[in-house]
Amino acid sequence: MARKKQEITLMREIESQEEWEDIMAKEGLWVVDVYQEWCGPCDAMVGNFRRIKNELGDELLHFAMGKADTIEALEKYRGNCEPCFLFFAGGVLVSYIHGANAPLILRTLTEQLAQEHKVLDGNAERKEVKDPFVTNRMQESLADEEEEEEEEGYIPHRRVSTRPEDYEEVEEGFTVALIKPNVVAEGKTDEILAEMKAKGIKVIAQEQRQLTEDEAREFYSHLKDEDFFEELVKFMSSGPSHVLVLTKGQADDSIIKEWRDMLGPPAVEDAKEQAPESLRARFGDAGLMNALHGSDSKETAARELAFFFPHMDAPKLHTKKKDVQRTLALIRPDAFASQKDEILQKIKDAGFEIALSKVVSLSREQAENFYKEHEGQPYFEDLVTRMSSGPMLALGLARDDAVTGWREMLGPPDLEEAKTNAPDSLRAQFALDENPLNQLHGSDSPETAKVEIDYFFPVEQTVAMIKPDAYGTKDAIIEKIHEAGFRIAAQKEDHITKEIAEAFYEDQKDKDYFNDLVEHMISGPTMFMVLSREDAVEGWRKVIGPTDPDEAKEQAPDSLRAQFGQDVLQNAVHGCSNKEDAQQKIKKIFGHLEFAADGTVKGSC
Q: Where is this region: Disordered (predicted)?
């Protein structure tokens, strides 16, 4: 892969274990972009790294690109397709980030560099961390060894495996707090911080800062019509305040209420009467000098965070995903023709998410194959005939305990039994007089659900493209991709040539807009991704929405083009039209790739 000379100077290329050991022995913080040869390093971050290197001018800050294919120390990262950045100091892993989250990477870099200076000055200790991705790989290897040992008759102590894919990043609830000038001047800050700690409240950012009058006016602009506004401005700019961002390790906004409960009523007199143990009752003076401030809502907290800490992102939690289960539901042809909407509403009311949806028509042979376990039953012929009589709706339903929950909603398979013993069940409610068979199907076990979902929604690949007009919002788009259940099996970022653009849109070369489209596609960086998921081609087309963003806003307001598109030409993203188109474009962009059953690239990152 060709690189500019200055990029090589900025980022040392590490391709052997000896070179790896050499940088690990050097002083300072090393930020390592771990990659594999076929997909290359994350070139999009180079400009950010160069900028911060120039801004900081810190000799302790170093950047490298580590080739996992040939470095033994990075062996466990082989097979990881998403960008991965490791932070090493003194040969110790001190932080890690999976994904090209530029703000998070740069913030972590700055924090770890400051920490390393403290370590080298003898004012702090270096803290080693473990990357769950590597831990998972090691545990999988150990599990394989355990299976071999068990086959030989030895039963070892079981180890618990934690897979990174079982975890997700969610926004952590936070609030902004101010310890006001009168309390700071009295030297009470440490006492208040101790009370926060005793309540389990974490301080994730803090600084002592004296507001100017203009800043005080801006911060309290929502009170500008109050008689006391000018007096408040003078008080808040009269001396330094202590500004804090507080969390409690929870995804909800309960920290906002908890902190305000600790504060007590805004008026000190009311606080002393109604909540004498509150902070304002104990630390506040009369009038406006009520000691402390706390955000009154999630929206206010976000605004105040941006006011005091403009370069800080909202805090994130690395939490275990809910144990969401999936099951297959079928609305059979007769019910699909007459009762589809009512049944879908019942499904949504029960808390199921419709993760997959497809209208299908089975041939008689396919119906016989799907219900082959019922062959020999007196109803088999009628079942096969009706299942192949017309279109039906196949659904992948997701919810906690989805398999059992859906079967309980369905009721007994026998209609007469359902009507007698479970009249509120779906099979009883949506029975058809002219049809002796029940109208709904549900998987009978998690194992069967996987087989049946794979039957109707086989894992396949499609190409997704984030166009130059939406490149600046790629992180938000990637988040939406993950939310939709897609796995990013491969990705690359590039300024594509005119020849590549023309080849990519070859099927549209006779269109009037073809030249404009090509010119737009070569106007800036583009991100290409291979997405894997059940029914990926059609699923991705639903996620991106209609070609025209204006039409998308009306018909599919949650679609990517509705949210990020500008016009038909600059509509943010691209999706393949069918499986054949997807396969051709994967080959054009990524070359020959082989995919495992779970949608990952075999033997690659």
A: 139-166
* Residues in contact with 158: Cβ distance below 8 Å, sequence separation at least 6, in sequence order: 146
DSSP letters for 250-299: -SSSHHHHHHHHHH--SSHHHHHHH-TTSHHHHH--STT--SEEE-SSHH
Active-site residue, 574 included: no
For residues 361 and 423, the answer to whether their CB atoms sit within 8 Å is no
Span 22-49, pLDDT tens digits: 999 999 999 999 988 777 788 778 888 8
Q: Which of 441, 482, 574, 592 is catalytic?
A: 441
CA neighbours closer than 13 Å in the CB half-sphere of residue 232? 19
Give me 13's structure tokens. 């290329």
Residue 562 token pair: 């509705």
Q: What is the mean pLDDT of residues 242-264?
A: 89
> Residues for the chain: how many in total?
605
Question: Quick one: pLDDT band at residue 504, thresholds 50, 70, 90?
Answer: confident
- Which DSSP category does 571 fall into? -
Residue 295 has pLDDT above 90, yes or no: yes
Return the number of other C-beta atoms located less than 10 Å from residue 405's C-beta: 18
Lookup result for tokens 């376990």: 373
Mean pLDDT calculated for residue range 502-527: 88
**Residue 88 contacts residue 56 (beta carbons within 8 Å):** no
User: What distance in Å separates the CA atoms of residue 64 and residue 12, rounded to the nearest whole number?
Assistant: 4
Give the tokens for residue 5. 């000379």
The whole-number average pLDDT for the span 515-539 is 90
* Mean pLDDT taken over the chain: 85
Average pLDDT over residues 505-534: 89
Q: Quote the percentage of the chain above a pLDDT of 70.
A: 90
For the residues 544-563, what does the mean pLDDT come to? 92
Degrees to nearest 5, angle at CA 311 with 100 and 29 = 60
Alpha-helical runs (H) found in 445-603: 446-456, 474-483, 498-504, 514-521, 536-544, 549-555, 560-564, 579-590
Q: State which amino acid sits at residue 185.
A: A
- Residue reference for tokens 């926004």: 171
Q: Could you tell me the domains of the chain?
A: 5-129 (3.40.30.10), 135-169 (no CATH), 173-314 (3.30.70.141), 324-456 (3.30.70.141), 459-590 (3.30.70.141)
Of 118, 122, 317, the closest CA to residue 204 belongs to: 317
Contact 579, 454 (CB under 8 A): no
